[in-house]
User: Fold this.
Amino acid sequence: MTSDETNEAPAPVAAVAATAPLLGSMWPEVDKALDGITARGEQGVLDVIVHIPPTEIIRGLRALKADTKLKFDYLRSLTAVDNEEEGIDIVYHLYSTTGRHNLTVKSTLAPDHLFIDSATTVWRAANWLERETAEMFGVRFNGHPDPRTLLMPEDMDDTFPLRKDHPLAEIEVLQGEGMGYADGDGEDQ
Amino acid sequence: MPTGLFGLNPWLDGVIRLLIIVGLMTVVAMGLIYIERKVLGRFHARIGPQRTGPFGLLQSVADALKLVGKEDLRPRNADPWTFEFGPYLVFIPIFLGFVVSPFMAGFTVRVLDLGILYFVAVSSVSIVGWVMAGWGSDNRYAMIGGMRAAAQAISYELPFVLSLLSVSMLAGTLNINEIVEAQTSVPNIVWQPLAFIIFFIAALAELNRPPFDIPVGESEVVGGPFVEYSGIRWSMFFLGEYASLFIMSILISALFLGGYEWPFGTQLGIGWQLVLTVIKASMLIFLIIWVRASVPRLRIDQLMGYAWKILLPLSLLQVLVNGFVLVYDLPKLLLTAAGLGGVFLLVWLTEHAITRPRESRATAAATAATLQSEAAS
Amino acid sequence: MVIESAHEFETQDLLLNVGPQHPSTHGVFRMVMQVDGEVVRDIIPYIGYLHRGAEKLCETMDYRQGIGFMDRTEYLAAMNAELSYVMAVEKLAELEVPDRAQWIRMILVELNRLSSHLMFMGAFGIDVGVFGTPFIYAWREREAIIDLFEEISGDRMMYAYLRPGGLAWDVPANFVPRCREVLTAVRQGIADFDGLLTKNEIFIARTQGIGIVSAADAIDFGMSGPSIRASGVPLDVRREEPYLKYDEIKWDVITATEGDVYARYLCRLAEMRESVKIVEQCLDRLQPGPIMPEKMPRMLRTPPGEVYIRTEAPRGEFGIYMVSKGGNRPYRLKVRSACLSNLQALKHMSVGLYVADAIIVLGSIDIVLSEVDR
Assistant:
């Protein structure tokens, strides 16, 4: 309902090291377009990032597409980021071919409720992108016209490779320092 | 013309002639394969076979040995009779077409009074073999290729026959040797340029050579009717294709370019006549390979449209003009003038057909889009 | 398996399986075409045969190891793929790339665009049916470009030459004259293709009016690259969000209006000429200088943040979405592949055309499966 303009998002996934102000960016117009939708904005490294809850995401995307000044008619990319305990973020990268501006829209799904509405009704480009996100992360896109696996084999629809708890095989270092088996994580995270 | 070549019993003589044909055909086909690879290589800015034997001359022999040694695969669900007999039905008629090819005076295997009719009838049988191969292979690509081959052969049969008809009208006979001997002073191409071009195009289509090779379109149906054949059976198709290429070139050079008769006449010994025939056939073969290296492939509906809507009316026109000139005994130069006019008309019509605005495809796409949106909703 | 269709003559539609092993699917790609006679009624593409899990693997690689992965993600335009990746790292780590490295990067990226478009010309010629001739012409010119790349980076295809911050090592001393030699050869190659195919009547008859995408549909599908520019949308990342030095030289965005296969072919042909122009201007502006910033850490670490960087690969917009939580490896790397988005429109473009046309439409989208599947 209300949207707050904050520079300091409470421990989100992508907090910029130096807090960048939202003034001077397109946030005011985005805020106006998303009137009536819970939206929280922050400034990323390049784009403005808008957080919308999953229940209102399609209304928000439609509003952004329909807005006469912003006119986000091009869906660049649709993917997800697995934040382990904090849930899975569905990330939409939007672009306006007429206005030449970008926007990143994020929607966080709780780890036990991985359902979100499909954006295929807004842009047809979302079709295959959502199929891939669904099979890689185990997210269900409600209303998707063709929910088959895209890259994974058809019978492997219960493993979600890009989740953080899906293991990678041990990496064998064959030359240089650290010969022998290294575990999947390095020294830093 | 001697009934016995070696003065032997005519049956034995016939068998010897058949063996000569078979041997000659195989050697000729293998030689043509080598020539095509070399010439095509030169068009492609590369050299072609060069390692097997001096200048790669033994490449065809190596290919033949390899094909003989391959396993003879047969799909489990292939129809046994059509699959087995398809290849035979493709290349036997071609061997039969060899019978009337005039290489030199007095040495045709059999001079038939209905030579042209015989040739056309016999060469049309091979298309049955293509369809049998396509159907019997139990493979969708093969079936599509077989259907395409049948449609193409039927479409181009008419311009083929009508241009042959124009030439025989000029000579007044269907006997190929007599047509050749009627060209002592002027080859037929001078009187019938339009018929020559139409016959050349129709011959390319009958041979399934590019740009009319959509039944064997390598980049889509990957071999068409022959996709399930391997080893010796496949080599029969291959040999048949090159043998018919050779025979068609001999025929074109005999009917339009004067064969062994022009320009020196029969005073030339039979050795030189053979050389002359081979030179003319080689020029045509080079032209056919040149066309293969340069031109994309026509789609099946464009191909058939071209035959029925452009080549057929023009060949009928040619026959009409021939009849007019010959019945009323007008000077033959009129034929040349009409022929050249016809050639320009052909070129103009082709150009116009390519560049006319294409509403039909757009409406097809539009209806497809509405179908699709209805299906999706 | 056949599907009954609602016809008066009770014909049956044929399910034709094209691929994954097929000479004209440009890689391991499978599509099932529902064909009524010769007319395509439906196409169901199946991809994923070349999926190697590049995104997951890059989460365990540090920022230098990941460059090799980006090569293999798009092997025909490897420089472009590497460029997106290193630009993302540079943005996160706030590295300043020296000028010389930027000019050289531009030259390499445009040369790679040339070699990729040449490959398209060759493969497209085979699809249309000219056996061999355009293919060999394309390969002759590509050899010139790839030889140059081998002299610079040591590898013909998987270069791994760009690094976050600049280049791995400086180019050889004879780089500029060699480039000019390569450009001479490529100009001849472009003229050869133009002469062979552009005005050929059969080629025009095969490609005009086929596979039309309207501008609005193309934007809705998220297409990019020459496929969308041929529909009249002047969407070129180099013009919209200039990176490297594209805003400092003169070049044009090539568009066409019809949106059919012929228009895409013409766009790519003209883009090759533009690339030659760009490389020449870059060669004129190349100055000696450093190729890496002075104080590069041995192990590059980035502060937390996320960034989406896009560059104009030969096939469209190649995007890298990189999320970093500190450390020397990305937390999440997403490769936005141009070919995947372009391929979505295949069904839209080909329904209602003939089988032979559908093959040509697929060829004109110019996919490389390693980018589709990653």
About this structure: Chain B touches chain A through one residue (CB under 8 Å).
